[in-house]
Amino acid sequence: MAKRWTLRTKRFYQLAKAGSRLARRTAFTKAQQIFSAHDNQSITSKYQIKTAVDVANELGSMRGVMSKFGQMISYVSSPLPSEVRDEFAMLQDRAPIMANELVNEIVLHELGELPETLFDTWDPNPIASASIGQVHRAITKEGEAIALKIQFPNVAESLTADLANLRLLAKGFRFAYPSMDTDSIVNEIADRIVEELDYLLEAKNQTQFYEFYLGHPYISIPKIIPQYSTSKVLASELAAGMPFRDFLKSDQAEKNLAAETIFRFVFRSLYQIKSFNGDPHPGNYLFGGNGKVTFLDFGLTKHFNQGDITQFEQMIQAMVISHSPVKFSQAIRDAGLLAPDCSLNADEIYSHFIPFYDSVYEDKPFTFSESYTSQLFAHMFSQKTPISKYLQVSQSFVIIQRINLGLYSILSALNATQNFRGIAEELWPFVDSVPTTDMGHAEQRWLETRHFE
User: Fold this and answer.
1) Is residue 99 within 8 Å of residue 219, measured between CB atoms?
2) What are the angstrom distances between the C-alpha of 213 and each of 260, 293, 295, 403, 428?
3) Are residues 192 and 261 part of one domain?
């Protein structure tokens, strides 16, 4: 108990300080080409994790929940100065890495062989390192180029300590939002984050998305390689593409196309397969040009039931289809987003939530800008609005808010301009409109070749 309390206390103070600082030859040829495409993406670090103890002690503020918060700080369009957010950018995919000896030890334990003998080609330098693991590239004996994600040892202990501290912080949050059921919010966050520790569950989630989007003209999901996957090691196709930080240098037309792909991926996944990856940060995208985007990391995946989807639909219909304050106010109350004793009238409730629907409120082009998303972020957490003391967040909306924050911030970084209302009406099942863009027509042709349950 004393040891656990020490870890918990240490990580609490680290959180407090965080803001201040093919035929075989053909297959092998293709694999080598993909492998070589990552030559300039290998990362090194002066600070290497050499033992499991390092994870829990030396890098407490860089792993688990703390790293998730750091990732969010780095890209969410908030009132924080950009130079503060930039300090956390490395947490997207460039966090400190494990020493080769530790990597070898984990691979040997999980897969039965050292990586140099298990694979035809093995790169000891990781190409990405983030919250609970790091990624290496390899070519299998079968000639496939793969990305092997290796979980940091004992990271579960750090997560346990983080979640205990999160519960303490949530109790303080209740003073600002007295109607908020912070225990329910923390439980939902905890459930999703703990699920990330099970790479076999992530493999199942990723396979669901891979199979659904198979053959899509713009959306790509790497295939899982099950024979090299365990609960602590996850193998998938090695995807090639431009990382987010480099893609930001592209011209605006390219960025608008990529934004449309990301928008379509979010809402088609939500409404058609009732699932979404709840961790939309810049390190989880690779860009191929002409609107093509590869989506990575399905550890934090939220699955919704039909009741959840129906609530989302009712709110959208009331807000942007019928523009009905009365219907929207009732939908908000039915969804459990307002305390039962909320005395505000329908117009006041409707007006408060309009900014969250600005991008689809009217059938015309809309630009996601840094200023818009920053103002929305401030509006979301403002304690000065009349509605703030009545706000609640039901479990089904915890991850939805996380998705919205991430998605809007990504689109703002791209300065994306599109008629998102027109695109949304293709994706909303209660509208199911005809395609409005070239991408929409291409997606429609893809849909006609697929047979979904």
Assistant:
1) no
2) 16, 12, 11, 19, 18
3) no
pLDDT above 90: residue 173: no
| Residue 249 CA: distances (Å) to CA of 60, 252, 303, 322, 409 | 34, 9, 34, 40, 17
Burial 40-62 (b: 16+ CB within 10 A, else e): ebebebeeebebbebbbeebbbb
Counting Cα atoms < 13 Å in the Cβ hemisphere of 404 gives 16
Measured from the Cβ of residue 449, the count of other Cβ atoms closer than 10 Å reads 7
> Is residue 420 assigned to a domain?
yes
pTM: 0.80
Regarding beta strands 275-277 and 292-295, do their DSSP bridges make them parallel or antiparallel, or are they unpaired? unpaired
In a domain, 211, yes or no: no
pLDDT for 338-377, tens place per residue?
989 999 999 999 999 999 999 999 999 999 998 898 888 8
Instruction: Tell me the residue range of the domain where 44 lies.
Output: 2-197
Tell me if 302 is assigned to some domain: yes
Supply 74's token pair.
């780095």
End-to-end CA distance of the chain: 50
Task: Name the pairing type of β-strands 292-295 and 219-220.
Answer: parallel
